[in-house]
Design goal:
The protein is mostly beta strands. The chain has 1 helix and 10 strands. The chain has a 6-stranded mixed β-sheet. Strands 1-3-8-7 form a 4-stranded antiparallel β-sheet, with no helix packed on it.
């Protein structure tokens, strides 16, 4: 399953964005969902993950600024990003698996990655 992330854009430092990612065709309610980002010249990293039961995990760099949520009726996961910083600039991706290990622990062994969305934080 290739998921597509939406909602990126250009925002000033301190601003907010909300990303969304729909996952049709899977049993969404039992899957772990993850948001990732990749900045130029850097490895892809986990930003946030949420289990089917609502347990969350965040990268230290975004704790207190980002929240992750899911709507099982819409098969959609969201990433609310507040107090954005220039270092948050990256392409953001979402992905999913039934395994928490695959989603939340490197090297994130997904079969494929969908299209990400560019987030640029700049004045």
């Amino acid at each position: 399953v290739q998921l597509q992330a939406f909602g990126g854009g250009l925002v000033q430092p301190g601003g907010s964005l909300r990303l969304s990612c729909a996952a049709p065709g899977i049993i969404f309610s039992i899957n772990v969902m993850g948001w990732y980002r990749q900045a130029p010249g850097k490895q892809r990293e986990l930003v946030a993950a949420i289990t089917s039961g609502g347990m969350t995990k965040f990268a230290d760099s975004v704790k207190g600024r980002f929240t992750i949520s899911r709507d099982n009726r819409k098969n959609t996961v969201y990433l609310q990003m507040n107090s954005l910083k220039p270092e948050d600039t990256a392409v953001y991706y979402c992905n999913t698996d039934r395994s928490y290990r695959v989603v939340a622990i490197p090297p994130y062994n997904f079969g494929s990655w969908g299209q990400g969305t560019q987030v640029t934080v700049s004045s």
